[in-house]
Amino acid sequence: MTRGRFITFEGIEGAGKSSLQRALAEALTARGHVVCATREPGGTPLAEEIRALALARRSDGMPPTTELLLMFAARAAHVSQRLAPALARGEWVLCDRFTDASRAYQGGGRGLDEGIIDALASIAHPALAPDLTFLLDLAPEAGLARARNRQDNGDRFEDEALAFFARVRAHYLLLAQREPQRFRVLDATQTPAELLAAALQELAAL
Ligand code: TMP
To answer: Which of 44, 105, 159, 168 has the most ligand 1 atoms within 8 A of CB, as the residue to mutate?
Structure first.
């Protein structure tokens, strides 16, 4: 059996990644594909516990390197316990965030060294990279307004200043520029239906 397809969704908070992931999962399932819809940090019981730790607000703060290592601790569990097995079974893996998020948030946002992130990626997922990455691009003002309008109580990242999200966004765009064959940048101000149509068109080529 051939390896399944590995599609990731990236963007700042409020860009609409999760809605697009859900809509695409439904559309692909309706076409007869077996879909594994998952997210990072998280996706397995162990990785979800690490997620809770990584995203919780805390009065004693969290050093950026601790944050980075928690993201990769969750990722290592997710890849080995869920993601790689699903790909080996030939499934379409639709993942809400992956290592590009570490590059954008911990690299671009927090200013951590890219070489360290590369080294961790080579430990957590040697020889595994997404086939296609949708970057939902949106101005931080608009994204944060959407995210903070949600009924949930938000998380530690949503408390960051606009300048942090501006760096994250700029870094995502830089990653897309570096790897144009893998990234598809979508204007996240489009309607959900327009985004789904654009994404399906891109997937047809796969
Ligand atoms: P979300 O995907 O539900 O928006 O929340 C996940 C948060 O975790 C989001 O603020 C981005 C952050 N994050 C990182 O900082 N680095 C990572 O590697 C990942 C996967 C997520």
So the answer is: 105
CATH number, position 74: 3.40.50.300
Q: What is the pLDDT of residues 101-160, one digit of tens each?
A: 999 999 999 999 999 999 999 999 998 999 999 999 999 999 999 888 887 888 999 999
Count: domains in the chain: 1
* CB distance 100 to ligand 1 below 6 Å: no
User: Atom of ligand 1 at shortest distance to CA of 41?
Assistant: 20
Residue 160: enclosing H or E segment and its boundaries?
none
Instruction: Among 97, 98, 158, say which to mutate for ligand 1: greatest number of ligand atoms within 8 Å of CB.
Output: 97
Any ligand 1 atom below 6 A from CB of 102? yes
121 located within any domain = yes
- Residue 163 reports pLDDT greater than 70: yes
Its domain, for residue 54, covers 6-203
First to last CA, the chain: 17
